[in-house]
Amino acid sequence: MTDPQDVHNSPDSQNPGDTPAKSGIELAREALAQARADAAKRGSVPGQGKRKGPRGPRGPQPGRGGDPKLFGAAIRELMASRGWEQRAAVGGVFGNWPGIVGPELAEHTRPEKFEDGELTVAADSTTWATQLRLLSSTLVKRLNEELGHNTVRRVKVVGPSSGPRRPGAWRVR
């Protein structure tokens, strides 16, 4: 039984006087040569796709960043170029408040805002507000270790608010 894929044993190649049958590799070479010739007529190179115009320079381009960078390094560079370093660091303090002041103090206090070197911290009771006021100089040092020298100059502590007072005379309940 003959294999229909076998070029050497095909019935057409057995005719005397015909040229010898070509092997598979020869047929592939001829097909490739024909494809290259067709592509040359069209003005393109096989496997490269169509080029619509001249391409720009291949090296690093100004403003494009050049070589790939690690994500963390790229973010730090972006923050430095935009002047966001201090804001991001302060945001880190707000996010890591328990890690900075400890879990017990963090349970009763929370940072509210940071403005012009002053961190405002709210306490849930007057007792914890007093405790935080006593620790404020230590807290300023600790925050400056985290954020950089002289970022926080003062900690303002606010206690719980009982709401706005009604105008007028004092009232006894």
Automatic annotation (TrEMBL):
InterPro entries attached to this UniProt entry: DciA-like (IPR007922)
Biased composition regions of type Polar residues, renumbered to the chain: 7-17
Region (Disordered) location: 1-70
PANTHER family: UPF0232 PROTEIN SCO3875 (PTHR36456:SF1)
Annotated protein name in UniProt: DUF721 domain-containing protein
